[in-house]
Amino acid sequence: MMTRSSRRRRRGSMLPLMAVSVISLFAFVALAVDLGMLAVSRTQCQNAADAAALTACRTLNNNPGSTNNNLAPAVTNAKTTVTSNVNLSAKFTTAQFQKIEVGQYLYNTTSQTFGVSTWNDVTSSQTVTPPSGSWTAIRTTLSSTQPTYFMNVLGVTSMPTGAQAVAVYKPRDVAFVLDMTGSMAYASTFNYNNVSLNPDPMVPSFGHYGLVTSNLVATANQYDSNGQVISRNNFTMATPGGPPIVRTFVWDPANATAPSTSAYPVTSTTSSLLNAFHRWSPPESGGDSTNYVPTTYDFTGYNAYHIGTEATPKGPTPAPYSFQTMTDSTSPAITYVGDRYRRADGSINKTDTTWATGASSTKAAATAIELLGYNVSGSNVRGGTSGTTTITTVDKFRDTVWETNGYDLDVKAYRTWKTNSNSEKPGDPGSFSTQVAAADKFQGFSMGPGYWGKTFFMWPPDPRWGGGTGTPDPTSPNTASNPVIPKDTNGNWLCDWRRRFFLNSSGTSWTVTPGVSSATATAGVDASLFNTGSGQALAGSGYTINYAAVLKWLKTGPQVLPPNLRAGRILYYSSIPDDVNTGTGTAQQVLDKVFWRKYIDFVFGTKVDTNNYTSAGYLYGVGDSPAGFSQSVYASNLNPWALNLNWTSVTPYMNYADSPLRPRLHFWFGPLSLMNFLQDSTQGGPQSSNWMAGTVSEAQCWQLKAGMNSVIADVQANHPNDFMGMTMFASNSTNYQVPRVGTSQNYTALQNALFYPKSLLSGINSGNVTTEERPYNTSFSSVAEGEIPNANGGTNPNSGLAVAFNLLCGSASLPAATYGAPRRGASKLVIFETDGVPNAYANYTLTKAGYNTYYSNFTSDTGTSTGAQACTQPAIDVVTQMNQQLASTSSSGTNSGLSLPNAPVRVYPIAFGDLFDPVAAPNATFRPTALQFLANIAAAGNTGSSTATTINSNQIITGPYETRISLLKTCMQNIFQSGLSVTLIQ
């Protein structure tokens, strides 16, 4: 039994032990508290380091305007982010920022992995530049000393802490798939349904033109049989489709004074090339492109004889409004240039803008009989004070005063003289000699307003021919005077444009010649030259064209076409030759001769060689025979005849009652007809390809390219670890069966690929500023299909998607020089744009060989009905193949795609253009089909639902061109910003 004293002794011995235990307990509590606070501090350090790394990395960019990838602001933002965070109860200080480093998150082709090989300390200085490419990684390191709260009793006053974070731009490989099919030019179609699609009201309204204005000025859009809109075009004025095409062509002033000399190679820099068709820039104001309202020009100081090299050029195209009516304007003061159509009473009216009414003082003369004041009754010509006295038969009738003086004759005064002095019978030569004022004398051309240029067509044609020395020579005009008097260098009149610019079917001068007596004269020139039925003004055969005479005429008077023509590295012609003989001249001159012969054929509307330019789809359609100009071309023989004893019995220069079909834009040489010629293939013509340059504002193709140009710049600025490639598609084009640009970060190459010929891109990307390409060869066969990035061909999207698969698959079987260098482990993004629904598909072979899987052996396209599954399914199949998992090995037989376990391929379809616009095309039959097709693409490409019937509204791009460009850029920004573009890897 323990005694009380023993118990006291025991308790006494336990007290030191308890003291020791309590102290130990407090030590453990102190350690737990301080370590807990250390853990909190460590977490807050990591949060601050993560935030700083992410913020700094996101600040890095590739913007050309930034210095060193915006590195200095990135470092500043990192420090600001750290000092804005709290470490326990106090904010971090800059002293706690141990280090900021920058690097490049690059792909190692050997290990096929991403990593940062070298870090550069930029804490204090941000002058270090990346070896190549961009900075794409930031590493932040924080250090901090955490004071202890309890452990200092044990002599521990603080504990170290800190954190490190690495943020990188996630690597993405992107393929753009762009629609370059013919429908991408539907808002820049020249003709449709045999009438103009140009809404520009600056058209001729004199003579017969005033009767067919509805064929010359488009007041509403057209629609095809499927309700697809064919919008009014933007050839000469801004429309919802885009700015004026006419302003996008240029010329080199090197041969300004010698147009027959080839201006090749180009000698001027891009900045010194002159506008080819908008030869001067009259001040303009107003206008509303959305509602087809043109701007208003101030034509003050206009000079039709300027060529564009003057210090302040004032002409020749566009020409003033007053040229629409062949009248003179007073505000500003401008005198009409060229030959004015006579009114039916024989007068020249310089102030009355009224044409095509019933009054003879305002309407145009339909025939020479009407112009000279005679009448036709059956086969007889009648005159006299009552208009009923028979003079002779139509086949014999001639007026020697008119045939002597032509349009220099004061016809109205002559008609009065006949009435008062000669019973309205033809006078003897010299019996009436009053002529018009010198300013009104015949010049051999008429000018049109705006961009119409000039024409020699005038009815009736001036009768004067010959009278000088030797045989009249239209290839040797006298250019000594200005305005040029229509004579040759031997003094022969060259006024009758039929004889000046046409020869008989044997290539020699017409048999029937005024002033030559011939009792056996064959039928007149008109019967061989003009179409006696419907269609174009000219007959299909029976004559040849005097090309040399036309070319000489083009180089006299107003120079409405430049001596060379180019756009977007496409050379259309380098000179205006003197003839079309391809057996002489340099290689460039031979090509020029080929071009000009075909263009002249086109303007005349003829069937020559293998070309057939008689389609109603050209130059605003067929010829017209409107009221007051009823067609009549008499094929009977013209017979020699003399009225008075002192007349010589000769053949009339024409049948005075002839009234052939009147042309619309045919016979007009100028920007309008030439632009139609360059885009000829869209009307089913003999050219197999659209020759509009890729820089031309051809809508809606141009809208897409303008938007994409902005998109590429935006990606460059904000996504420095994205690699991009580009492919285009249109049926039956071998140039689209390989990428336009392989995957890379060559932003200049990507932008150039939107506008310039494929074969020239390498040189252009390297800084070449002169190389050009002809779109045709000496056979006038097209070499431009798919070479020029413009609208042409059918819609076969599976070909563009298959090339995009190859761009991103990284197959060792594909040449890196063409396809670039896709990166295994980078997520894959495909952006597929189209304006329609498939109507063709490409035939190809899918080679399955692990991650060497690729598409090859493209053959010709197969066309079926628009929207048919046979055309839509192949495109969906390619996207489905993209969504297969990327194979882990290159072993043969593996079915490889582009998806990764943590990064499935994403395919974003974009609906672009009028088909998808219910306002522009309210009754488009194929809009639901097209949207369903794109919804299926989205579903197969992991960006849409399998049950959807359309795509996201922000991926449907419609509206006026400014809106489309803006919407496309916003749409792309949303796509590129989707997901995490910057991420932590440490």
UniProtKB/TrEMBL annotation:
Gene3D superfamilies: von Willebrand factor, type A domain (3.40.50.410). Pfam families: Tad. Residues 464-487 are annotated as: Disordered. Residues 12-56 form the Putative Flp pilus-assembly TadG-like N-terminal domain. InterPro entries: Tad_N (IPR028087), vWFA_dom_sf (IPR036465). This is Putative Flp pilus-assembly TadG-like N-terminal domain-containing protein. It comes from Frigoriglobus tundricola.
